[in-house]
Design goal:
single chain, alpha/beta, Protocatechuate 3,4-Dioxygenase, subunit A, 2 domains, five-stranded mixed β-sheet, 12 strands, binds benzoic acid, binds fe (iii) ion
Length: 286
């Protein structure tokens, strides 16, 4: 470590333990980065302006910092540290900026699309623990974009939920609902993050997916997606969120085929199964 880096690291010696660990490592890595790229003063000024604009475009509906973290892979790196892969537990992936906390309640079998455009899709599965036993009554939140790649919150003239909602799994862990078939879509590109993608020749697309957040007492809350196996961009997700275990086949059916819940629909429709395994909460010593 050079003298300057050492002096700055030492300045955090008196911080509480965790804060000291984080700030001192941040300083060491930041200084090493500046040295490695021989950062010019013009680049430093540009970086300050970039972060300032990232802050200015952020409000209670738009979180450009999360988007920046996503496209730099920092969100997935944090998930990797906190939810290591391995075992049977369903893998986690990015939360994204389109979650809403208070969404309409649905019963199993309901249609959460509520008029969102797209081809009908029946999604179902079972919530289990790591031993394979069903987890009864897990709280499930789902949200997704429509066939044009937009979430309800992205329509300025729409004042109700479409393509999102919450339901509760049955006693035997099963859940099922109707929605629309998800499509690939671009992350918002009209801010500094879009500028970064354009300048570096990267595309903004995410493969088609449905978001899930699943909570049950005694288990870690799971934030994940199910991806459609035939989507474009599975190998080049703009936010690095794809995990092979989260890809499912969405099967297309003709209207003549009876639906899994015994109905007939007058257009082609899709079905997919997404079983979920929750991790038991560890009792961490305080
Ligand atoms: C999403 O899937 O909703 C999303 C995730 C990260 C960045 C932008 C969108
Ligand atoms: Fe999404």
């Amino acid at each position: 470590m050079n003298e300057l880096t050492e002096e700055v690291v030492r300045s955090f010696d008196g911080a509480p333990q965790r804060l000291k660990t984080v700030t001192q490592a941040l300083v060491r890595h930041l200084h090493a980065f500046i040295d490695e790229v021989r950062l010019t003063e013009a680049e430093w000024t540009y970086a300050i302006d970039f972060l300032t604009r990232t802050g200015h475009i952020t409000d209670d509906k738009r979180q450009e910092f999360i988007l920046l973290s996503d496209v730099l892979g920092a969100s997935m790196a944090t998930i990797k540290v906190n939810h290591p892969a391995g075992g049977t537990v369903t893998e986690s992936t990015v939360f994204g900026p389109f979650y809403l906390p208070d969404t309409p309640k649905f019963a199993n079998g309901d249609d959460i699309s509520q008029g969102a455009h797209g081809q009908p899709c029946f999604l179902s599965g079972v919530i289990r623990d790591e031993d394979g036993d069903p987890v009864p009554h897990a709280a499930i939140e789902v949200w997704q974009a429509d066939e044009d790649g937009f979430y309800d919150v992205q329509y300025a003239d729409l004042d109700r939920a479409q393509g999102r909602g919450r339901l509760v799994a049955e006693q035997d862990g099963r859940y099922w609902f109707w929605t629309v078939h998800p499509e690939a879509y671009p992350i918002p590109t009209d801010g500094p993050v879009g500028e970064l993608l354009t300048a570096t020749g990267r595309h903004p697309m995410r493969p088609a997916h449905v978001h899930f957040r699943v909570a049950a007492p005694g288990f870690d809350t799971l934030t994940t997606h199910v991806f459609t196996s035939d989507s474009e961009y599975l190998d080049s997700d703009a936010v690095f969120g794809v995990k092979r275990s989260l890809i499912a086949d969405f099967r297309r059916h003709e209207p003549s085929e009876l639906t899994p819940d015994g109905r007939t629909v007058d257009v082609p429709y899709y079905t997919a199964t997404f079983d979920i395994v929750l991790a038991r909460q560890l009792h961490r010593p305080s």
